[in-house]
Amino acid sequence: MEGLSKALARYIVSVRYEDLPEVVIAFTKLCILDYFGSAISGAPTKPVQMMDAMVRDMGGNPQAAVVTGGSTSVMNAAFVNGAASHISELDDIHKASIIHAATVVIPAALAVGEWKGRSGKELIEAVVAGYEVCYRIGEAVSPSHYYYWHNTATCGTFGAAAAAAKLLGLNEEQMVEALGSAGTQAAGLWEFIEDGAMSKQLHPGKAAMNGVISALLAAKGFTGAKKILEGRRGFFNAMSEDYDVSKITDGLGKQHKIMENSFKVHASCRHTHHAMDLAIELKKERDIQPDEVESITVNTYQVAINITDNEEPDTVYAAKFSLQYCTALALVTGEGGLDQFTEEALWDETIRAVMKKVHVASVPEIDRAYPEKWGARLVVKLRSGEEIVKETDFPKGDPENPVSEADLVRKFMRMAGQTEGIHPKDFSEKVLELEHIDDVRQLMAPFAALEPMAE
Amino acid sequence: MEGLSKALARYIVSVRYEDLPEVVIAFTKLCILDYFGSAISGAPTKPVQMMDAMVRDMGGNPQAAVVTGGSTSVMNAAFVNGAASHISELDDIHKASIIHAATVVIPAALAVGEWKGRSGKELIEAVVAGYEVCYRIGEAVSPSHYYYWHNTATCGTFGAAAAAAKLLGLNEEQMVEALGSAGTQAAGLWEFIEDGAMSKQLHPGKAAMNGVISALLAAKGFTGAKKILEGRRGFFNAMSEDYDVSKITDGLGKQHKIMENSFKVHASCRHTHHAMDLAIELKKERDIQPDEVESITVNTYQVAINITDNEEPDTVYAAKFSLQYCTALALVTGEGGLDQFTEEALWDETIRAVMKKVHVASVPEIDRAYPEKWGARLVVKLRSGEEIVKETDFPKGDPENPVSEADLVRKFMRMAGQTEGIHPKDFSEKVLELEHIDDVRQLMAPFAALEPMAE
């Protein structure tokens, strides 16, 4: 029987921009834009600055830009840009494989793409292929793998290798070798979560870098295990209790799994998003004033209540896990991004007054539909006696309730807004016209020109 | 209860050259010399040259020399020098943990030591600590870990991190973080063996590099899991069926496990070494001529027969796994190093004539003692009617049958002899006087000055 790496390799080589449906191209550009928002907002944070300082000590040829400013080697750039995009907790997520693909696939693709002067179209091909490969591998080892292993890191390594290899123009045989080297470098244990350690950022950085190493070595003729996934002593057997080979091959080349990607639009726990969506929708429809409100009821599933029923959040972090606070914040401000979750907003009297009027409860009909549907019902009673009811089955950003391009551009503008030297509007327009860019260097030029931040 | 990382960290910090017994210092220098022999002989090989070319493309500040010639970043140097020393199949081995420690610990130590201008004494401390840490972790996860995982790579990452962290002068807390980052990067699957893929060299190179990354990041304040070994979602639970925590702590700081290291003196399968030792000993005692020999019998344990009973080897590789050939080669040449296992020697008429007279067989009394003893009995019958009998319980290089310094220097001279710009005699003398070297740069200068080999 043909090996799984061979099947994946053939798929990766076969991906062509010209064959991609327009909707896939448009969606992939949004994934890339969304990646940049997370990466730019993560660049100044401590873990990323430490990783950046470390690779600056090492040095490297100026081949690829880093979001922390300046240029370094392809390996180093993948490392830093991978870490940067996985700290603001707003990067994309694939529910079935539990992988944040952007944070590993896109930095690998950007670094190689810039180094080799590839076009925007080629970048899109590489990202589509990279997402497909890691989503499939993640689904194949779910759910057991996830108990010990950080799928974004382990499975993500294959996705990064696929994207890097695609942009290096490797052939099928070389692609198989690259996947072999990727799998034998795959690592990333969940143990760090016990201490809230910075491994969270190290993992995607290393996965992106290891994927790049795998592709660069394969381009030189370096060999790896040809059946790294299904082999007797390979990735599946070593790192999962159960695995489903069909997840790799079923429909391969006939679908575009990147379309299953979920975006996060609010900077809070996912279990607060449904109610925030509804409150923001209401705020847009009619500008209800805080003192018009008599009471607000949020009905949802039990898991959301377990995790986010908090009447008195006293830190910004806790506020992001308070369904009461998040609902009030959304209704008062009409937004829920990084700019809204501030120390000032936490103690804002108007928001706090509305928060006191919010009551949350689980109801059977919504609870039964979970986890297929992450639903909520919002009931706003006004002093006038009027009662407004709104419902949703899926938080915004899920494939079943897609965000608009405008929403994601707005999210990007908020996340990228604070970096000197980056003009968010120009930059987002460039990403959304990526297919017209001849050379990824043009896209990365603003970062290359940035002064590195002080440590 | 105190975490295992904390206990290891305290030990690593506590290692002081002044406290090391002379015999440990002398032995550690031999480990380092032996490392260089393997690294120098591996430098021109294809996989190493590919890895070298890859990091040359990337570039890096000239911080540390590579055995392939020139200088590069600490990370890159650890990568290339780790790979180079694991290809000639003559690097050291620890039986209980199944780890080749030299190939991961020493390149990490050399790279950081050179960069930071550390002394020979500090290098010795780091190597002692690095061996101790990875041997203990390897023993703790044996035997189940080894089925899927290449211990040299996975456990070796901790040893490399320990050595690098020691030379960076990290304190106990930073050392714990470094071990956390090391464990969450630990990787290396045996699947490559099915294809004889080059992952064999990638593994120690990456382990050395990942260890260095862990230490460099910890020096910047980067955090990792504090219980990466024994934690619920840590290294032990994720990567072994059974593990023995006592192997980490029992006797820690009171013994020097580097002394359990085995050296290989012959360039063939370990199961041929006992008979070769005896034949070489005989050749030294009296110069028996090939045509004096009537017959030779090798009695040994069954496993040796299973793997090395081959009357007609037809490649150099097969010759290394032929007990008949190896015994004949040793008796005719009085040696068994890399220089002896050549295409010419394979078809040498004199050696082939003696080979035909060699009979091999398992005998119960030797077989019963295996695997504690890897014994053999050599019976040489001469045409004169005289019968010479020689026996051994341990192949030379085992701790129970140590090789002499002179043997290891001779092995080094053979392995290093072919590299232009390296004067094996001067270099070995320098290593054997390592404690008098003020700065590791002096040791590495000949490599830094070497012209990089053509790809």
From TrEMBL, chains A, B:
Superkingdom assignment: Bacteria
GO molecular function, one term: lyase activity
Record-annotated MmgE/PrpD C-terminal domain positions: 266-419
Protein name: MmgE/PrpD family protein
MmgE/PrpD N-terminal domain boundaries: 7-245
Family the UniProt entry places it in: Belongs to the PrpD family.
